[in-house]
Amino acid sequence: YCDGVHSIIDGSGLNHSVAGESSKFSVFLRDAYQYPSPVELEKLQVQILQVSDLRQVWPSIRPVDLLQFLLLQRHESMKQSGGEVRTSAYDVVYTPEKSGTYEIRVSCGNIPLNAGQPFRKEVSAGEVNASLSRVVDYAPRVPKLIKNEIVVELRDSFSNPVMFQQSNLKLDISSINKSEFSTWGFVDNKNGSYTGSYRVKDVGTYEICASLSGKHVLPCPFGVNVYSSEHFPKAYNDAVSVWEDESISFNSLQNDYFAGNASVVIAELSKPVHGSLLQYGHDFRYTPYKGFYGNDSFTYTISDVNGNLASAAVNISILLTPPQFVSFPSQLLATEDALSPRFGSGFSSFEITYSDLVENISVTLSARSGTVCLSPMLMQFWMPVWSALCVSTGNEKARHLALAGPLEVINFALQSIQYLGDENFCGNDTIRVSTMNKNGRNDLDVPIFVEPVNDPPFINVPEFIILEEKRGEAGTLIFNRQRDKFDFCIGDPDLLCFPGNKSHFLVMFSVEVNSGFLSTNLPAELISTTELKLKNSYQWQPLQTFVTISKHFMVKAKGVRFWGTVNDCNSVMQQLSYYGGEHGSILTIEVNDMGRYGCYPDCAELMSVPIFVEATVNLIRRRPMSSLVAHTLGTAIVIEFIFLFSLGVLLLFFMCKCAMVLIHEKRRCVRQGQDIELSRIQHSNQQTAFTLAAVKSCRRQVRPITMATTTAAYQKLLGVGTKIVAVGRNYAAHAKELGNAVPKEPVLFMKPTTSYLANGGTIEVPQPLESLDHEVELAVVIGRKARDVAEATAMDYVGGGYALALDMTAREIQSTAKSAGLPWTVAKGQDTFTPISSVLPQSMVPDPHNLELWLKVDGKTRQQGSTGDMMFKIPFLISHISSIMTLLEGDVILTGTPQGVGPVKVGQRIDAGITGLLDVHFDVGKRERPKRS
Description:
Immunoglobulin-like; Ig_E-set; 66 strands; transmembrane; transmembrane helix; membrane
């Protein structure tokens, strides 16, 4: 049956043609073997379709003409049976009448030809038919000194638009008053229409005629009345902008021109593409479709009472509103001096919406009394969402957080917002969230309440104070700003953000000395909360008696404690005086905030505990040692230590030297005693020395003999040996790994001695092979002639010894030879295919059936096996082979290879060996054949 690939479709009808002209192409049907495949006429289907409007052209299909039929008849290309004509060659004739692009598809039954691909051809318009061509557009009234246009359409006999005729078109203008005019060449609009331009200088009536190559195009002539330009309306383009999802009303005629007060109507109005347009007289209302943003437009044409027209366009920009908030929290909660929220990724109630999912938008978050930041985001093992997120913190103070990216990324980041208030700040704050795009900004203020945390009070006092000398019974002022340049004060960080009156912030303050007395003035408001610790008493007692002068009273005791404001505490501390002995005292200051000003330690339970701090000040009468004196004394101590250490080192040196002298003296005495004893036995040792010398001489003679024997055996192997007998499949594991059956008797094949390669040589891979297979084997070197040898005496003929050999195999050639029943000589016997080591004497190999063979390629172990796994042992092999052929001195038997054979490629290195006896190495290279002349 006909084949869709081998069948042939050819002819001029597949090429470019002109509308109305007949086209023909031929179809030659072939089967899969490229023989003619005759079919009935009904089986051949041809579809010719115009691409632009799917217009179909019906072809005429008939067998090839008579002459071709007679030539093809001998090849049985046409057969007749039962009144039906079957042939393998058909002509297809068709006439396209419309210009454009056509697709031609041919099928034989249900088999599409040309591999299912359609043929495409272009049909161009024919010659211009003047009777069907027209001047289709012109203005009967035009202004003077203005460039005006007329439009001409050219058609062929089948009404096809004719293009590329602008050079043949001409515009003729005539006038009664002989006014001046100008014309321009026609412009091809690429659709069969042409635009020509003209301009006249004076007012009047003109007759215009368009012609193509001297032939007039109807109507010809047509009249045009020219007026002054002030009589014509002028419309100007307008630009309007509106927010998305909103509506706008405007009057586009406000900037247009009308002659006098003539009434104007909107004659034509186009519809915008992306919105709805309503007209109310001269007013328009435009509403963009929901979700649309970008640019839209429409055109309108105005007409005055004389029918003069003017057109303009209204360009509308639909602006994207700044991102809007879909959800946001009404109130946030945070904790003083802590990153909030403490649990979770962040405040998760922020979400914005934006129409453009791809455009980068910007969101800025800031707080008046704190910092907004991002929490660490969860790791994502796919393409992370936040990879397109840009984060910045603005200025160096990093008071605000700026996020930039697409909508999805911004919403993802807004779930990780965290807040950290300023140090010791608590109370009400506001987080401002500002969303921005290129068209504007949207702000949102979210209140946040920062819960106060009870901070410990602080006490600023020095470690010690040097009191002034005692003058009579008067006390000494402890904290004197004129004497000590130090800021003596107490305070509490919670006072800064205390919501109420500062006078309601009260702390418990106490001062106490371990010896002597303290005195100070207290405001009268503190009488009810003041407690004293008197001499020899360890209990605080309420104030019993007091004298108030100017709303103050004085107390004198070992310790004073009261409950007051921070200012009261600082005022009392500044007036504190000490009465005591010559040795000074220790002043203890304590401040307790009573746990009333914030939660502690965690606001989760809304609980708090009192926090108090304590400081001690050493009150001393005498001025301490100056820094210069202290450094001088310290330096003297260090120098003294270094001097004593040097003396100790010197003493240790002399002690060690004396010990060494005593040891050398003792060794000298011992050597003298040994010399005396040696002289007594010297004579008896002379005979022993002679014997040792003889033995060493014998050893020096034996070694050369052994090496000479090994070298001689190796030279016989290379020079005297006549053949290499190789045993295949002697290891069961090797036979199985190649998919071969285990043999019942040895499988033998021969290799030439020209395939030997000494240790360190290069194994050559012949052309065109890319690799060889390695097989490491134990080689047995025959020492004398052996024929029909018994198995019991076979080992007597191994006079040469043993060696390690590689049986290199071209596996691809061997597989082909095996399948064809051919010998393996080409696969086994090429040069360098039998790399071999030096020969080991029998004395070095006491048991050849207990050797470990190994092979590595580029340092990686490929083969490792024991000769004990051989199925046919060496005595049996020698007896079996000698019963077939005579073995001569220097002949080699390769006893087979263990499992693990594999390929090696050019550039690799082979290392092989017999464990504990020898090892060899060979490189793998490419064999270069000489070029043929």
